[in-house]
């Protein structure tokens, strides 16, 4: 798995499985077939496409929009999910804003 460390200014599109340890100042997109593990900070939104996978151990200072699979262990702003999405929120995770999961 590729490691991304340090700061990245601008939007970030996942093109191969990656783990991030730094700060991304922009939106992050995870398309179908790709995976991201976030151990740092995203100052923007995280978009998980249908067939994409994300594990959030760090912080998202924006919204998580899930159409794929996401595991949340850290802190996020708002959470939105599609009817076909798979969302797992750890008991110790924090959703600071609105939780828009479908019941």
Give a description of the structure:
The chain has 103 residues and is mainly β. It has one domain. It is built from no helices and 16 strands.
Summarize the structure.
This protein has 103 residues and is mainly beta.
Question: Which structural traits does this protein have?
Answer:
103 residues; mainly beta; ten-stranded parallel sheet; globular
Largest sheet, in brief, is: 10 strands, parallel
Counted up, domains total 1
Task: Give the N-terminus to C-terminus distance in angstroms.
Answer: 34 Å
Class from secondary-structure proportions: mainly beta
Radius of gyration: 12 Å
Instruction: Enumerate the spans where pLDDT stays under 50 for 5 or more consecutive residues.
Output: none
Average predicted confidence as pLDDT: 95
Number of DSSP strands? Answer: 16
Shape, principal axes of CA atoms: globular
**SSE string, helix = H, strand = E?**
EEEEEEEEEEEEEEEE
Number of helices: 0
What is the share of helical residues?
Answer: under 10%
DSSP strand content = over 45%
Topology (elements, then pairings):
Blueprint: E1 2-4, E2 7-9, E3 12-13, E4 18-20, E5 23-25, E6 28-30, E7 35-38, E8 41-42, E9 46-48, E10 53-56, E11 59-66, E12 69-72, E13 75-81, E14 86-89, E15 94-95, E16 99-100
Parallel strand pairs: 1-4, 2-5, 3-6, 4-7, 5-8, 6-9, 7-10, 8-11, 9-11, 10-12, 11-13, 12-14, 13-15, 13-16
